[in-house]
TrEMBL record:
It is found in: Membrane. One of its GO terms (molecular function) is oxidoreductase activity, acting on paired donors, with incorporation or reduction of molecular oxygen. Belongs to the cytochrome P450 family. Its cofactor is heme. PANTHER family: CYTOCHROME P450 FAMILY MEMBER (PTHR24282), CYTOCHROME P450 FAMILY PROTEIN (PTHR24282:SF130). SUPFAM superfamilies: Cytochrome P450. This is Cytochrome P450 714A1.
Length: 538
């Protein structure tokens, strides 16, 4: 009996030992062996970087550099009125990336815990990234997991064949021939905003009104994308956007972006709120989808909004590809989330930053108005905008938009993970490395853009992007490679329509209460809003 008991104890402890050793082996592999292998592959190719510490990598150094820059900015004196808007704010955002660029060159490696990163700002390697079309280059898996409450499993988060399947269904709905049909709703929503602004000017004691335009433009963009997505059901969009805005704010911590260690094992109040909102957004979207399906089955006729197009594409594709049939509803819900977030917020921000820049440069406001008169002649602008050829003639407006996207593009960083070993130019890129591109630094590089890189000069785009700088592949406001933003055409059309209509009615100047403080919260946001003085155009 005793021998049997002893044997059981030995077996029990053996199992425990095996489990412990297995866990230790896995931890050692993930925290040391795999990172060391990745760094070795890069090091042998001459790629350098700051020396990492065990377990934490370069996190302490990143935090120290960030703290030093933050303290320096805090101690600076308040600039005078003519200096309070400086366009070189990028030096205070992720300053360690730029400090290491100066120390180690345009391509270097660094570490955040077990995650190994490759920073890329070399034009030749950027060109290779743009041209690379393998499914082996995807969205970082750890980052995708973090963004799940906001984006579901939609196009932005998906990788591999799942991503290819989703893009095949969604991309055609943003082709130019489809976007043409959305011009009318863009105009209608913008005219409603114009009426609101005109009322505010009338209510003011003078001919000018101070407004925080970024909030109004966010509402406008939400209205446009809601109507484009859901047609007559667009009023539901307001509730969805409010919840998505909360999730965006909660998930915008840079620690999550770079995969810093998180030792919280219990859900916080924010985590619980995110889960709750996640379910609520799904329920609202699913309700709209079910209502649309029911009415369609009863013979209802709908305009070809994005929801209807996606429903029809998903139904057809699930018949042709039965392996995806069970994912149809999930596909629709997740990509509606993606369209809401990426399609409305980014465009609203670009219009807001553009009007801020034009407030500083009223001569460009006048040039745009003169161009509208020249192109449209005696025709009403709204009628004029219905013609796609007319929009292409707005060269000055296009230059202003391109320069705004260069200096204040809504996207701040782009990340790619090598899901398999691959070749990029002369480099062998090991599986598991996370590649990073910091747009603001690329778009202000004096080696590429010249000594006036920090100045607002739309004329640099007079002959197109290819002639605007030395390395046009380093201009990427809509991303790069196969994961280039599928809504680029939709966004550019909306930007031209909204800006042309607004600038034909109003002129803008910077408010004395405007505080220039661009911050990163998944996108480039104005921390204190954008306050402008608005008056009717002469």
């Amino acid at each position: 009996m005793e021998e049997g008991l002893q044997l059981a104890v030995v077996v029990c402890w053996s199992v425990v030992l095996i489990v412990v050793l297995s866990v230790l082996k896995r931890v050692l592999s993930q925290m040391w062996l795999k990172p060391a292998r990745i760094r070795s592959v890069l090091s042998k190719q001459g790629i350098r970087g700051p020396r990492p510490s065990f377990l934490v990598g370069n996190i302490p150094e990143m935090q120290k550099i960030q703290s030093t820059i933050t303290n320096k900015i805090t101690l600076q004196k308040q600039p005078s009125d003519d200096q309070r808007v400086q366009h070189n704010w990028d030096s205070s955002m992720f300053p360690y990336l730029q400090q290491w660029t100066r120390e180690y060159g345009p391509v270097y490696m660094y570490s955040t815990g077990s995650k190994q990163h490759l920073y890329v700002s070399d034009p030749k390697l950027l060109r290779e990234l743009k041209l690379h079309n393998s499914l082996g280059l995807g969205r970082p898996t750890y980052l995708s997991k973090t963004m799940q409450p906001l984006l579901g499993n939609g196009l932005i988060r998906a990788n591999g064949h799942e991503w290819a399947y989703q893009r095949k269904l969604i991309a055609p709905e943003f082709f130019l021939d489809k976007v043409k049909g959305m011009v009318g709703l863009m105009e209608e929503s913008t005219m409603a905003l114009i009426e609101t602004w005109e009322s505010r000017i009338l209510e003011s004691q003078s001919s000018v009104a101070e407004m925080r335009i970024d909030q109004d433009l966010k509402t406008l963009s939400a209205d446009i994308i809601s109507r484009a997505c859901f047609g007559s059901s667009y009023s539901e969009g307001n509730h969805i956007f409010a919840k998505i805005a909360f999730m965006q704010d909660a998930l915008s911590n840079p620690n999550l972006l770079f995969g810093f260690l998180n030792f919280s094992f219990f859900p916080t109040e924010t985590d619980k709120k995110l889960r709750s909102m996640n379910k609520e957004v799904d329920a609202m979207l699913l309700k709209l989808v079910k209502e649309r399906r029911t009415r369609s089955e009863l013979g209802g006729v709908y305009e070809k909004d994005l929801l209807q197009m996606i429903l029809e594409s998903a139904a057809t594709e699930s018949t042709d590809m039965p392996q995806y049939r069970h994912k149809t509803d999930r596909f629709i819900l997740d990509n509606c989330r993606t369209i809401y977030f990426a399609g409305s917020e980014t465009t609203a921000l670009t219009v807001s930053w553009a009007l801020m820049l034009l407030s500083l440069h009223p001569e460009w406001q006048e040039r745009i108005r003169a161009e509208i008169v020249e192109v449209c002649g005696d025709h009403e602008l709204c009628h004029c905008l219905q013609d796609m050829d007319t929009l292409r003639k707005f060269k000055t407006l296009t230059m202003v938009i391109q320069e705004t996207l260069r200096l204040y593009g809504p996207g701040v960083v782009a990340a790619r993970e090598a899901l398999t070993n691959m070749k990029l130019g002369d480099f062998d890129v090991p599986e598991g490395i996370h590649m990073w591109v910091f747009y603001p630094a690329l778009h202000r590089d004096p080696e590429n853009w010249g000594p006036d890189a920090n100045e607002f000069k739309p004329e640099r785009f007079a002959n197109g992007i290819s002639e605007a700088c030395k390395y046009p592949q380093a201009y990427m406001p809509f991303g790069f490679g196969t994961r280039l933003c599928i809504g680029q055409t939709f966004a550019m059309q909306q930007l031209k329509i909204v800006l042309s209509l607004i600038l034909s009615k109003f002129s803008f100047a910077l408010s004395p209460n405007y505080q220039h403080s661009p911050i990163y919260k998944m996108l480039l946001l104005p921390e204190h809003g954008i306050r402008l003085l608005v008056r009717r155009a002469q």
